[in-house]
Design a protein that fits this description.
With 467 residues, the chain is an alpha+beta fold. It is built from eight helices and 23 strands. The relative contact order is 0.11. Bound molecules: copper (II) ion.
Length: 467
C-alpha cells in the first residue's frame, strides 16, 4: 500500500484531522478490494464509494478522495487516445499530481480548406486539446482566461467536489479576463467526458469553447484497444462571406463538424487490419442529436458517459445515436480493409454551408431560359434540376466560383468521383500494411473485381437483365 502512495497524498495528510482519518482512507481502499476481489476503481467508477460503516471517514475524504495510486503512464497504463485534427493537452507531474494548463482565447480556425473563422477555443485550438488521464489520477488544471469576457470551465460528466464543477455564479466566481483559476480533483471514474465553458454558455460554446476529457480505466475489464479515436460533434452557423460563427442561431445551423472540421477537412482514422478499434464520440452541439453511422462494420456500444456497459447488455449496432450532452463509445475489430465512411445519418448534417432559402428546382426544365439569362448574366446556369450533386464538382472544375471564405455545400474529390457529402463525414482507412502509423495512406486500392462498375452487355445477357 505504501508503495502506491504519491507524494501528493502525503502532502494532503495535513488537511486531514488526524491519523484516524488517514487510516480510514486506507481501510476504504482495502475494503473495496476485499469485498469483490476486483479493485477500488470500479467502486469509484460508479461513484458508489463503500462508505457504509466507515465512521472515521471525514467529509473531505468523501468529497475529495486522495489518490492511492501513482499517476497513470501512457503506454504502460493506457493506449494514448488519438484526437483526429487535434492533440492531447500536455501535462507534467508535480508532487504526484498531473498538472495541466488550459488557456481560453480567440483562435483563427480553419474548418476546411477555404473556410476560416474567428472562434473561441483553448491553447490555440478549436476545440481545446483533449485532456487525457487515468482513473485514480489527481489532476490540477489551471485555466487562464485570455478571452475578452469572463468565463469558467465545467468538467462535464466528472464526479468531483461541488466547488470544482465550474458553473460560474453557482459553484465559483467567474474567471475574469487575464485571471487564472485552479481546479483540482481526483478522477474517480473512467470513460469519455468533456469540458466546456459554463458561463455565457450559448455564446461561448457556439464559438468553440469545448473539449474532450478522456479518462482511461486503471485496470481495463476488456483488452486495450490498438487505436483509440476521440471525436467531438459540433454545429455552427457561419454565413457565406462572414468570418465569425453566429451564436444567436437557434435552428438553422449550416456547418456540422467532427473535431471542428467539416469534410473534406476531416483527418481520416487510420488502422491496421486486425486492430481493435475504439471510437469515442461526444456531442455538445447546441440543438441536434446525431446518429453516427459507420460503414462496413458492426460494432458494440461499450460505454455511455455513465461508464462501461456490462458485456451482456452491449448491443451490436451500425449506427449510434449521440444525444446532446452525451458521449458514446463503440468498439470493433478492423477486420475488413478499405476506406469506410463514418458520418451522421441526418442528411442535412453532411452538407456544408447549405442555405434553405432557394426554390426546389428538382424536375424544372430551363429550356431556352439559360441562353436568355446568359445575355443578361454571362455564365448564368440553372442548377439543381436533377439534384445538387453537381454543386461541389462545378466549383472544383472551375465552372462556378465559390464566394470568398466559403466551402462548397458538399464534399471533395474522391478516388473515383466527386464525393457529395461534406460536414459530419470522415473516413476509416483500414490497411494490411501501413508505411507510417500516423500518416494518411491515401485512397484504398481495391483488389481487382471488387469494385462496383458498369455492367457489361455479356453480363446483362447472361443474367437476363433488360432495360
Ligand atoms: Cu447529425
Amino acid at each position: 500500500m505504501k508503495k502506491t502512495m504519491s507524494t501528493c497524498q502525503i502532502d494532503r495528510r495535513t488537511f486531514l484531522t488526524g491519523a484516524a482519518a488517514l487510516g480510514s482512507s486506507v481501510v476504504l481502499h482495502r475494503r473495496a478490494e476485499a469485498a469483490d476481489g476486483v479493485s477500488t476503481h470500479q467502486h469509484l467508477q460508479t461513484g458508489t464509494l463503500p462508505v457504509t460503516g466507515e465512521r472515521n471517514l471525514t467529509l473531505l475524504d468523501r468529497i475529495d478522495p486522495k489518490p492511492t495510486l501513482p499517476p497513470g503512464e501512457p503506454g504502460k497504463d493506457y493506449t494514448p487516445v488519438i484526437t483526429p485534427n487535434n492533440v492531447s493537452l500536455p501535462w507534467k507531474i508535480v508532487d504526484g499530481v498531473k498538472v495541466y494548463h488550459l488557456i481560453a482565447e480567440e483562435v483563427a480556425h480553419e474548418f476546411a480548406p477555404g473556410l476560416k473563422a474567428q472562434c473561441w477555443g483553448y491553447n490555440g485550438r478549436v476545440h481545446g486539446p483533449t485532456i487525457e488521464a487515468v482513473e485514480g489520477d489527481r489532476v490540477r488544471i489551471y485555466v487562464t482566461n485570455r478571452l475578452p469576457g469572463s468565463t469558467s470551465v465545467h468538467w462535464h460528466g466528472l464526479l468531483l467536489p461541488n466547488g470544482m464543477d465550474g458553473v460560474a455564479g453557482l459553484t465559483q466566481p467567474v474567471i475574469k479576463p487575464s485571471e487564472t483559476f485552479r481546479y483540482e480533483f481526483t478522477l474517480r471514474q473512467h470513460g469519455t467526458f468533456m469540458y466546456h465553458s459554463h458561463h455565457d454558455e450559448m455564446i461561448q460554446m457556439a464559438l468553440g469553447t469545448t473539449g474532450m476529457f478522456v479518462i482511461h480505466p486503471r485496470k481495463p475489464k476488456a483488452e486495450r484497444p490498438d487505436r483509440d479515436f476521440a471525436f467531438m460533434l459540433s454545429e455552427w452557423r457561419i454565413d457565406v462571406g462572414t468570418s465569425r460563427p453566429n451564436p444567436n442561431e437557434m435552428t438553422n445551423f449550416n456547418l456540422f463538424t467532427f473535431n471542428a472540421k467539416a469534410f473534406p477537412g476531416t483527418q481520416p482514422m487510420v488502422a491496421r487490419l486486425g486492430d481493435r478499434v475504439r471510437i469515442r464520440i461526444a456531442n455538445v452541439t447546441a440543438m441536434n442529436h446525431h446518429p453516427i453511422h459507420l460503414h462496413g462494420y458492426q460494432f458494440r456500444v461499450t460505454e455511455t458517459d455513465g461508464g462501461q456497459i456490462p458485456a451482456s447488455a452491449q448491443q451490436w449496432e451500425t449506427s449510434v445515436l449521440v444525444a446532446i450532452g452525451q458521449s458514446r463509445t463503440i468498439d470493433f475489430v478492423a477486420d475488413e480493409p478499405g476506406d469506410w465512411a463514418m458520418h451522421c445519418h441526418m442528411t442535412h448534417h453532411v452538407m456544408n454551408q447549405m442555405g434553405d432559402k432557394f426554390p426546389n428546382m428538382i424536375g424544372v426544365k430551363p429550356g431556352a431560359g439559360d441562353t436568355q439569362m446568359q445575355q443578361l448574366l454571362p455564365g448564368y446556369m440553372t442548377m439543381g434540376t436533377d439534384g445538387m450533386a453537381e454543386h461541389g464538382s462545378h466549383i472544383e472544375s472551375g465552372h462556378l466560383k465559390a464566394p470568398p471564405n466559403s466551402i462548397p455545400m458538399r464534399g471533395g474529390l474522391g478516388p473515383f468521383d466527386y464525393i457529395t457529402m461534406g460536414g459530419l463525414l470522415t473516413v476509416l482507412k483500414v490497411r494490411e500494411r501501413l508505411e507510417r502509423e500516423d500518416r494518411d495512406p491515401g485512397w484504398y486500392r481495391h483488389p481487382k473485381g471488387t469494385v462496383a462498375s458498369v455492367a457489361s452487355r455479356d453480363e446483362l445477357r447472361r443474367d437476363g437483365i433488360t432495360g
